[in-house]
Structure formats: structure tokens, C-alpha cells
Write a structure and sequence with these properties.
This protein is an alpha+beta fold. It has a domain of about 180 residues: 2-Layer Sandwich (Alpha-Beta Plaits), CATH 3.30.70. About 45% of the residues lie in helices and about 15% in strands. It has a 6-stranded antiparallel β-sheet with strand order 4-1-3-2-5-6, with helices on both faces. Helix 5 runs parallel beside helix 7. The longest helix has 30 residues. The two termini are about 40 Å apart. About 5% of the residues have low confidence. The structure holds adenosine-5'-triphosphate (2 copies) and magnesium ion (MG) (5 copies). One magnesium ion binds next to loops. InterPro entries: Thg1_C_dom (IPR025845), tRNAHis_GuaTrfase_cat (IPR024956), tRNAHis_GuaTrfase_Thg1 (IPR007537), tRNAHis_GuaTrfase_Thg1_sf (IPR038469). Belongs to the tRNA(His) guanylyltransferase family. This is tRNA(His) guanylyltransferase.
Length: about 280
């Protein structure tokens, strides 16, 4: 290997190796989408084309990075959960985050025309860019809290935005008046405004708006749910038993199984137990 006198600068590089035995979540979020969505005339409060484009990009990222077991997204953001024992890029944070962000952005731009057939991306209106971060969670309880947090956020924003834009578009209020009217209101007040003033039952709004989208690898093997739950809770108790490292053959078998799993989209509740109890294999 040719070691030049300049290679000394390599020593200035610092790597953050994400702690092993923790769950990695990578979240990407559109930069300045408040403005971007205005420039491209997104329908308000929810442009369905844009949500489907986000889902498409996330789906492609999951396909191209098999260690991603689940993704959840709404608005201009997507969170990706990696399998706990992933060794992708030796768990180097910068490699992981930058790869997710640039893959997601590439797919978003590549498929733009499929969803926005009459509006091309252009420099005047700005190109879509995303930022990203990685967060580590120590156990399944925290992972579920994380995804619950994102879905609650989706719900709160959507109820607010739906009421706000109904007041503006159907009620003829100025944005300022609509904002004032909603100040200090609770969820039940917004539901009431939608129903009594506009005959809209919020519960009947499309699930993709209310719940966001969860994309998950589906196991085709029906597994014994209680076995799986016992196993995961045992793992979490950390009773002192040392995890036996998987043999190469075991690893290959599992990787093959993951590749064969179908990637599927749902607009489901991920706050309650059902979704997770049906998919405990995600944490294997
Ligand atoms: P930042 O760069 O800090 O993320 P931002 O302008 O992107 O700034 P966010 O908090 O991420 O701020 O908000 C996303 C914005 O994009 C919101 O204004 C939201 O209403 C809008 N938006 C995202 N997706 C859609 C959609 N499908 N239809 C309509 N508007 C959308
Ligand atoms: P990693 O994902 O680790 O970066 P890599 O395959 O991208 O893996 P690099 O060290 O980044 O590895 O090397 C880039 C590769 O791309 C080299 O093989 C280089 O020769 C090739 N390459 C890059 N640009 C050009 C170019 N303009 N013409 C021909 N080959 C190129
Ligand atoms: Mg942001
Ligand atoms: Mg944003
Ligand atoms: Mg956002
Ligand atoms: Mg390279
Ligand atoms: Mg290179």
C-alpha cells in the first residue's frame, strides 16, 4: 500500500460506531417542506400523491437495504428500524445516516413524475432534499414508544391541519382567523367544529391521513405468538444468560428468510399491542 506523506490527514477522521445490542432507528425528514409544498401546489391539508411518493421511496429503501425491518412515515418524514444485530457498515453512524438519506432522496426524485404527472421538478421551485439522524433504543418498550410518538404526532397534526384548512377553504376564513379560532382548542373541539359547522366526521377521513403508513416485512410462517413473546421478554429481562452468538449457517438462514419476506404497507394502529404481537419476529 502506498502511504503518502499526506495520509496523515486521515487521522483527523472520527467514527461513531453505534452501540451494539441496541435498536437503530434512522429518521429522514424533508428540508423546508413547508415552502416546498407551497411551490409545488400540494393540495392541503394532505396531498395524497405526495404521501404515496413518500411511501414508494421508503418501500424502495427497504428493498435495497434488507436489514431494515420496518418503516413508519407521515407528512415529509420516514423512520426506519434496523434489525437489532445489524452489522451494516460496521454500524458506523455517518455511513448509515448518509446512505439512508441519499437513497431515500434518489428514489423520491426518480419516481416524482409517476405521482406528479403534470408538474415537473424544477430549479425555480426547488429540489427536494432530506435531513437525517440516527437514534438508539435499548429495548422493545422504547421502540414502541418511539413509533407511538410518531403516530400520535401524525394524528395531532392531521386533526389540526384538517380543521385549519376546512375553516380556510370551506369556511372562507383567513389563515390568521383560522389560527386564532383554533388557539387553545382540544381534540374534541376540533372534531366538533368539523362536524357541526361542516358535516365532516373526522373518523371517516382516509386512514392514510389519520394513521400514516407502516411498511413491514411480513413473515409467511405463522408462528406461535406466545412462544415469541416469551422469548422476547426473556431476552429483555437480561437474566444473566449470555446470548450465544449465531453460527454462520444460522445467520445465512435468517438472512435468506428475511429476503423472502414480502414487504407490505398498512395504515394501521401501531400504538396498541395487536400490530406488534402479530409480528414479534421483527425483533428476532
Ligand atoms: P424542516 O426543514 O425543519 O423539517 P419543514 O418546513 O419541512 O422544515 P416540517 O415540520 O417537517 O417542516 O413540516 C412539513 C411541512 O410539509 C408541513 O407544513 C406539512 O404540512 C407539509 N407537508 C408534508 N407532506 C405534505 C402533504 N402530503 N401534503 C401537504 N402538505 C404536506
Ligand atoms: P464504498 O461504498 O465503500 O465507498 P466503493 O466501491 O464506492 O465502496 P470507493 O473507494 O469509493 O469504493 O471507490 C470508488 C470506485 O468507483 C473505484 O473503483 C473507482 O475506480 C470507481 N470510479 C469512481 N469514479 C469513477 C469514474 N469517473 N470513472 C471510472 N471509475 C470511477
Ligand atoms: Mg427537519
Ligand atoms: Mg421537514
Ligand atoms: Mg416533518
Ligand atoms: Mg464509494
Ligand atoms: Mg470513493
Amino acid at each position: 500500500m502506498a502511504n503518502s506523506q499526506y495520509e496523515v490527514v486521515k487521522q483527523f477522521e472520527r467514527e461513531n460506531y453505534l452501540l451494539q445490542d441496541t435498536h437503530i432507528v434512522i429518521r429522514v425528514d424533508g428540508r423546508g417542506f413547508h415552502r416546498f409544498t407551497k411551490n409545488y401546489d400540494f393540495s392541503k391539508p394532505n396531498d395524497e400523491r405526495a404521501l404515496k411518493l413518500m411511501n414508494k421511496a421508503a418501500h424502495c429503501v427497504m428493498e435495497s437495504i434488507p436489514d431494515t425491518v420496518l418503516a413508519y412515515g407521515d407528512s415529509d418524514e420516514y423512520s426506519f428500524l434496523l434489525r437489532k444485530d445489524t452489522d451494516l457498515f460496521e454500524r458506523r453512524e455517518a455511513k448509515l445516516v448518509s446512505t439512508f438519506v441519499s437513497s431515500f432522496t434518489s428514489y423520491y426524485i426518480f419516481y416524482w413524475n409517476d405521482y406528479f404527472v403534470d408538474k415537473k421538478l424544477n430549479l425555480d421551485d426547488g429540489l427536494p432534499t432530506f435531513d437525517g439522524r440516527a437514534v438508539l433504543y435499548p429495548n422493545i418498550k422504547r421502540i414502541r414508544q418511539y413509533f407511538s410518538w410518531r403516530q400520535v404526532d401524525c394524528h395531532i397534526n392531521n386533526l389540526y391541519n384538517t380543521t385549519f384548512w376546512t375553516l380556510v377553504i370551506k369556511g372562507g376564513l383567513t389563515p390568521q382567523d383560522a389560527e386564532n379560532k383554533l388557539m387553545g382548542t382540544f381534540a374534541k373541539d376540533k372534531n366538533e367544529i368539523l362536524f357541526s359547522e361542516f358535516g365532516i366526521n373526522y373518523n371517516n377521513e382516509p386512514e392514510i391521513f389519520k394513521k400514516g403508513t407502516v411498511i413491514v416485512r411480513e413473515s409467511n410462517e405463522v408462528e406461535n405468538v406466545s412462544d415469541a413473546l416469551n422469548r422476547t421478554s426473556l431476552e429483555e429481562q437480561n437474566t444473566g444468560a449470555v446470548d450465544a452468538p449465531l453460527s454462520l449457517r444460522q445467520k445465512e438462514r435468517r438472512a435468506k428468510k428475511r429476503r423472502k419476506m414480502k414487504i407490505q404497507e398498512h395504515h394501521a394502529d401501531i400504538i396498541g399491542d395487536t400490530f406488534w404481537h402479530e409480528r414479534s419476529y421483527l425483533f428476532e
